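Note to self: keep these together.
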Amino acid sequence: MPFTHTTGTSAAQSALGYQEAIFPQVSRSFALTIPQLPPPLNTAMTTAYLLCRIADTIEDDPALSIADKQRYEAAYIRAVLGEIDAQAFCDGLSPLLCEASSPAEQALLSQLPRVLEVLRALGKPQQAAIVQCLRVMCPGMGEFQRVAGLQGLESLAELKRYCYCVAGVVGEMFTELFVDFAPELAVHQARMTALAPSFGEGLQLTNILKDQWEDRQRGVCWLPRDLFARHGVDLSALHASTQPGYGQALGELIGIAHAHLRRAFDYTLLITPEHRSLRFFCLHSIGLAILTLRNLHRRVDFHAGSQVKVSRGLAVATFNTLRALSARDVDLRTLLERATRSLPLASL
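Structure:
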């Protein structure tokens, strides 16, 4: 029987309680929206996020070599599948992580068996969707770690593939979880599945653009060499956003992210209005990403993500506005056009 918040066993309650306690410590925006989803969907989405967060922690830790990251990502999948002991996996990896992984991320990794306890009590379709996401994400992360460096990714096509592996596949997982929760959405499932990768890819590309200078400080660049080369920019020598051609290249990527977010918006409106919390979950992420793109477009000379981050006041106003309008398609489309009118828009 799938978990609900009224599950009777003390072990199950303890595992659920742990997830609810750790979630706000390892997430910001999703910790505001996922708990508002109805049960048991909120439990499945929280579990999915935490398992993806562990994969990200392995990928991002600078103390691990590329070979170690690939080895531990592969072992992580085996632990999730129950092929190896999850506690032994945690005990072997945890001491290798450095302070770049936050205490909350390290604590989450150490408690993987408790998260897996929740996973294995979810419905079979929910489990399958989450595991399939990790099966794509973890090898994808390992593949791109091999080519990561200040020279950037080889091409725009490689950037798209990277964004799919680490985020587009998450959009596909969301679709499976949404349709499992609300079977009446199955009539739109084919279209939602086609649009779903753009949900994750738009958010991921926005974050890549926002965080590019911090990424460079740790020796990584996820920008596409071919696009920047067309504008006369050598990514391996990039040291200031004021270099000639940088603004035009950035504008192209903003246009691509904007196009993905519009597809994500169309995806969201396929969810019927009575499922307002599901719509709001999607709209909140899309809205914050659009506001970030506007900041990037206005300030191409930024040199830190904090300079283009959405202000707390605007984030709160966006949260309240989107929650109020989540079932009103016409008002949402009007808001989208108003918010994006200054942004470049690419053709996908």
